[in-house]
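Students often ask why we bother encoding 3D structure as a string. The short answer is that it lets us treat folding as translation between two languages. Here is a chain of 288 residues written in the first language.
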Amino acid sequence: MRWFAYNGDADGICSMVIRGLVHGIEGERVTGVKRDIELLERVDAKPGDEVIVMDISLARNHDRAKHLADSGASITWFDHHLQGEPIPEITSHIDTSANVCTALLVSRVLGSGEDWAMVALHGDGLGAHSSRDDLAELGELLNYNGYGFSLADLHFHPDELMVACLEAGSPEVFMQSETFFRLRSGFAEDIAHCDSIEIVDGIHMLPDEPWARRVVGVYAHRLNRGGGGPHVIAIDRGETLQISVRGENGIGELCAKFGGGGRETAGGIDTLPKGEIPALMNEISTRR
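And here it is in the second language, the structure alphabet:
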């Protein structure tokens, strides 16, 4: 039995497409919204099963990964987020460099799919390292679709979107599809609301509404392209904030101090009590 666990954002989707174009995607697939990180809890691998993980943090799935490996599952891990303590039994392709995304690692290992890796770089806000500026919109839209509090917020289930990309075969063909045009239309409607976003005590504060939950990632990446970070973007959920942070380096480690995680230039904190905002902003101020 083969299992796939992959992030529902652009990088996770493109990673799966690259793999699928070479080896197929037969097996059980587990994915979700972008912040649904602990996907291995839904992988019921048995001894002898194969588990392929794409674009989710080993640090956030460490105990479950160790259990599956110790139980006799064969695990291959592709990622660019915080790794935590290595697990020798796992075949790891993990690189946390600021100019790398998971799809690029998959492409290098398989020797194929560079065009989809370039899409993923744009989706992760790493477009400066992509050789295909013509794929910037696609990367942004695939990433946009992954953001939401639950699957109900999304235009497409990430697995449905991944299969559509795989069936298209190339980014250019997918960009002529009805699915692509639906994403473009939804994004245009959502991003228009961003003119109303206010900055409160240094935080770009968004309301807890579907459009904001969908657009927060793209909005954060666009802020970061303008420099001057780290930038803090938050969705106000009453007594807590859902935090996104973007900057040039060390962002994942910064967010980990507050129960979150991420990678070199981007990270998040799912639930930050409002009483901890001063501590977070003090940490932010030392990096500006």
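Translate back mentally: The chain has a mean pLDDT of 96. Keep this in mind for the problem set.
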